[in-house]
Design brief:
The structure is a single chain. This protein has 315 residues and is of the alpha/beta class. The radius of gyration is 22 Å and the shape is elongated. It contains eight helices and 17 strands. A seven-stranded mixed beta sheet has the order 5-2-1-6-7-9-10. Strands 12, 13, 14, 15, 16 and 17 form a six-stranded antiparallel beta sheet that branches. Strands 3-4 form a two-stranded antiparallel sheet. 28% of the residues lie in helices and 27% in strands.
């Protein structure tokens, strides 16, 4: 079976690696254009592009796949990509966190299968892992689904569940789901080769949408219950990083746990080697790993040596 792969970040690169190692022929990889990254803002290739080039796979990076795009350059790149796909010998397109919308013109060429990091129809959209943790879900998973023009509305082909641990962050849960997605897409394509891959419509009930994460969301509002803030700290690790303000300084909070305590929201109730306990609207939050601007992530004991917080108030 020959396939075109479309994806961009590490979640997708894990799937590409699984497909390559399983022996599937991949005559083309689509990924987003290189983006500025790091302190020097140098152009950096996506994780998918890096893997593809390292293993001799042809790569295309159109700005868009929509031939009706208003921007002439985007429209021209989309037309070129469309012509390339039309002339390519492949059986199926596999999509994982590509980041570009696949228009009807692309979906109509060959079957398109998506690796989605949630238990559909819950958490359709851009940030299903973050939102599952933020909402306090007890489980999530991966759905292999057929693609159509709606946002993650296509029929389900395979689905597997994963428990969300109290210690899970978006980073740790991402790695679990990426590995699972890689195994599942290989199994799905094997079933497709054998004519045994069945698709069922998504249920109409239980639909939720995982909106893209914004940096503005990451500011902790200590008037909220501690449990809600605890989930947000985990959901926004590693991006964009939850934070609070102390004396006008932004302090990022990378790990935290629930703690007993009460007081004015934002008030530091205790600051020692075990963590910085801050009063919330309900209960308290113990921050155990923090970072000041220009510094490294540090355990609370080390952080307090250069940034004392006793008696301070987070705003």
């Amino acid at each position: 079976m020959k396939l075109v792969f479309a994806g961009t970040p590490e979640f997708a690169a894990v799937a590409l690696r699984a497909l390559h190692e399983a022996g599937f022929e991949i005559p083309l990889v689509l990924t987003q254009p290189d983006r500025p990254a790091g302190r020097g803002m140098q152009l950096q290739a996506s994780a998918v592009k890096q893997y593809a080039l390292a293993h001799g796979m042809p790569v295309a990076q159109p700005l868009s796949l929509r031939m009706d795009a208003k921007d002439p350059q985007r429209a021209e790149e989309a037309r070129a990509a469309h012509e390339r796909l039309l002339g390519l010998d492949y059986d199926v397109m596999v999509v994982a966190a590509y980041g570009l919308i696949l228009p009807r013109s692309t979906l109509d060429i060959k079957p398109c299968i998506n690796i989605h990091g949630s238990l559909l129809p819950r958490w359709r959209g851009a940030a299903p892992i973050h939102r599952a943790i933020e909402a306090g879900d007890l489980e999530t998973g991966v759905t292999i689904m057929g693609m159509e023009e709606g946002l993650d509305t296509g029929p389900m082909m395979l689905i597997e569940r994963v428990a969300i641990a109290d210690t899970d962050t978006t980073g740790s849960l991402h790695d679990k789901l990426a590995a699972l997605g890689g195994r599942m897409i290989v199994a799905a394509l094997r079933k497709m080769e054998a004519g045994q891959l069945e698709a069922v419509p998504q249920p109409e009930e239980g639909v939720t949408y995982a909106a893209k994460i914004s940096k503005e969301e990451a500011k902790l509002d200590f008037a909220l219950p501690a449990e809600q803030l605890w989930r947000r700290v985990r959901a926004f690790n590693p991006f964009p990083g939850a934070h609070g303000l102390v004396d006008g300084v932004t302090v990022k909070v990378w790990n935290a746990e629930l703690a007993p305590g009460a007081g004015t929201p934002g008030q530091v109730l205790a600051a020692d080697a075990q963590g910085i306990v801050v009063a919330c609207g309900e209960g308290a939050l113990r921050m155990t790993e923090l970072q000041k601007p220009g510094g490294k992530r540090l355990a609370a004991a080390e952080f307090l040596k250069s940034f004392p917080l006793a008696g301070k108030v987070f705003s």
